[in-house]
Every structure is written in C-alpha cells, then in structure tokens.
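Ticket #4471: structure export looks truncated?
Reporter: QA, pipeline team
Priority: medium

Steps to reproduce: submit the single chain below to the structure queue and open the exported record.
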Amino acid sequence: MLAALAWRNIWRQPVRSVLSLVGLAFTSLLLVFMLSFQLGVYDTMKIGALGLMDGFGQFQPVGYRDDPDIGKTLPEADALMAGALQVRGVSAVAPRAASFAIMANEDKSFGAGVIGVDPAREVQVSNLAATLVQGRYLQAGDTDAVVMGAGLMRNLGLAIGDRVTMLGTGRDGAVAADVLQLVGALDTGVPELDRQIIEIPLARFQADYNLPGGVNVIALRGPDFDGVVAAADRLRALAAEHGAVYLGWDELQPELRQMITLDFSTSMLMYVTLVVVVVFILLNTLYMSVLE
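Actual output as written to the record:
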C-alpha cells in the first residue's frame, strides 16, 4: 500500500512540473508576442494618422496652435527648413500656409479649409497624393490648379477640369478671390476631411491672401518615425533659435496619444492579471510537492 502511494506521488510530481512549465512557457510567449504586436500596432497607427497630413512633427509660430491666424507666420522659414534638414532623422520638410474660404460653383457654395503647399515637397511629407481617386495631384508648374476632397467636389457638383470660385479673407482683411481649375479629387477615407479640404500651389495662396513669402507651418518627416521622435530636443532648440515652436506627434495628435495611453493601461492590467494567475499556479505546484 505504501509502495503504491509512493509510486503515485512520484508519477504525479513530474507531470505536474511539466504542466507548470508548459503553462509558464505559453504565458511568457503570449505576453512577449502580444506586447510586441501591440506596440507595432501603435506605431502603425501613428504613422498612418500623422503621415496623412500632419507629418511626424511641425514648426509653427508661437501661439499658432491655439489660434491658427493666417497672420501668424514663421519669421525665418527658409533658414528653419535648411536647419531641419541637417538634423539626423529628418529627411523632408514641407512649407504650408492655411486659411478658410467659400468655394462656389453656380448656385452651390460650401466652406472649406484652403492649404497652400509646395507640390514637390508636399509629396515627401504627406500621403494625401496617394489618396487621389480622380485626376492628378498638384505639380511644380501649376499656377491656378486645385485639388479637393471628393465629398466637397460632389457637393459642389464639379467634375475634373471645371472652374471653381474661391472667396476668402486675406491677411490684411481684403477679399481673397480667385477662380481655380479642379485637377484632382482626394478620398482620404475620412468623410469630414473629404468635405472640406482644398490644396492649391503655395505661391498662388500667398498671392491670393496677400501673404508674400509667408508660411504658417513647416511639416517634417523622416525615413523612420522613431528617428524624428528622437530628434525632438534638437528640433525644439532649432525652433527656439528662429523664434518658432516645435510640436511633436503627441502635440499634433493629442487624441491619438490619449487613446494609446488608455489602451495600453487596460492591456497592462490584463497582462499583470495573467502573470499573477501563473504565479499562483506555480506556487500551488510547489506547495503540493512539499506536502507530498
């Protein structure tokens, strides 16, 4: 009887140990895989959201983020762009100027956000050109061309090649009026953006809005997202030297940062719970082995 009981205990211990080791290995593998997968998804979300338009970082005039007034321009935009390209991790810069206007076609009119861009530089920073569904994107030689969201084009009843009237307010308060030719339609997948976005050549914007040489924003991008993030301190110092401010990805997309923080906190609670369960299973195995 004692021999049978001893043999049963001897047989149970290695089985219990093997099961505990399998559970520990599976849990470790799950934690490593899920954490890596989760961090990878976060990076993809950041690149997707920022790469569409904002860039991985931006230079802005002081106070522009809270009050995006067209009159607030970067005092040394050319020097700032040249300096940014010397920073390790930054490979492209794109100057922009932005305001609002009423776009009209016959008896239809809608409000829109007008952005003046340098076509050659913009495609290196923004993925908007990749969302083109009709026509073409802006080119370096364009003068009166305009691309707009497919939703806005549909609301105005326009087709590629049509002329559209733009009516806004210039820097000095004068009327900023122009007639532009629609050359392309964008479908970003964000309906709110597609119903209000317009891009025109930067030189045309500056002429229409009486903003000679003025730039409101300089967007940055690099071959690697983490490289731009790592260069944030250097870029902030460079901005301060030229009377501007630098905004990182978390300042450009605070909602995205909050969402990632909330999701990561919830996930960490689940991971900690899983680890605690595994630890108790191991303690139970050791305790049973000692008792037997």
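Status: closed, not a bug. The export was complete when the record was re-opened. Leaving a note from the reviewer for reference: DSSP finds ten helices and ten strands in the chain.
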